[in-house]
Design a protein that fits this description.
Elements lengths: L1 H16 L5 H10 L10 E7 L13 H9 L4 E3 L7 E3 L4 E15 L18 E7 L1 E12 L3 H7 L1 E3 L16 H7 L6 H10 L2 E4 L5 E5 L6
Parallel strand pairs: 1-5, 7-9
Antiparallel strand pairs: 2-3, 3-4, 4-6, 8-9
Length: 220
């Protein structure tokens, strides 16, 4: 008897999971809500949970970041493994921080907004199936930040003149590109150019192209 009850419950569960909403179901809901279907847009989007949920992360888009995406401009995360990551456009830096939301956020590819759906014209109602591929309670929040110059200053090689240079110096050297690619400079390319000018840094041509900055000279 217990086995039979289990099979019945299993069958009921399967029926609920595989149930497909029909136009009659939608009309019934509209009636219960006391709405006039003639005043509603003729498209109903029915949501279903997808069979798999890809490992996506939601990223907040500030106006600057959204514009960079539209223009196809540079957009890159920078930082070392133990750093707090920053997101950089070609000319701005944003601190990236994980934030929680009290409401669940659904990721639904192809979902249409009201402005994309024609107004009611007396035609029959249409159903479209939309699949939920992700449910999120966290997202990456972006806050515009100023460049961090402490590490940059520590990476540059002090320079007091050619007479003090040593051929056997093993100090690690950097170019502008390697500073950006290594995560040593957590800032945008434009901000790095400005910071290097402020630090009176310049590039030396030779066997090693390195960024160095002028060391203040004290006269006695």
């Amino acid at each position: 008897m217990a086995s039979k009850n289990y099979e019945n419950k299993k069958q009921e569960t399967t029926e609920i999971v595989t149930y497909v909403r029909t136009i009659d179901d939608v009309k019934t809901v509209i009636g219960h809500a006391k709405l006039d279907s003639g005043e509603l847009r003729p498209l109903t989007q029915v949501l279903y949970m997808g069979e798999s949920t890809p490992d996506y992360r939601l990223l907040e888009l500030t106006p600057e970041v959204a514009q960079a995406l539209r223009e196809g401009s540079e957009l890159v995360f920078r930082g070392k493994r133990d750093d707090r990551a920053v997101l950089c456009t070609s000319d701005a830096t944003f601190e990236a921080k994980e934030a929680e939301t009290s409401n669940s956020l659904l990721l639904i590819p192809g979902l249409k907004f009201p402005a994309e759906i024609p107004a009611a014209d007396g035609s029959d109602r249409i159903l479209e199936r939309k699949e939920i591929v992700g449910v999120f309670y966290e997202y990456i929040e972006l806050r515009k930040s100023t460049p961090r110059l402490g590490r940059l200053r520590s990476l540059l090689v002090p320079y007091a003149g050619p007479e003090l240079e040593r051929d056997d110096d093993t100090t690690q050297s950097f170019t502008t590109e390697s500073l950006l690619e290594s995560g040593g400079a957590q800032m945008s390319r434009e901000e790095l150019d400005v910071a290097l000018r402020e630090l009176t840094a310049f590039q030396v041509d030779g066997t090693r192209k390195e960024l160095i900055y002028l060391q203040s000279i004290q006269y006695h």
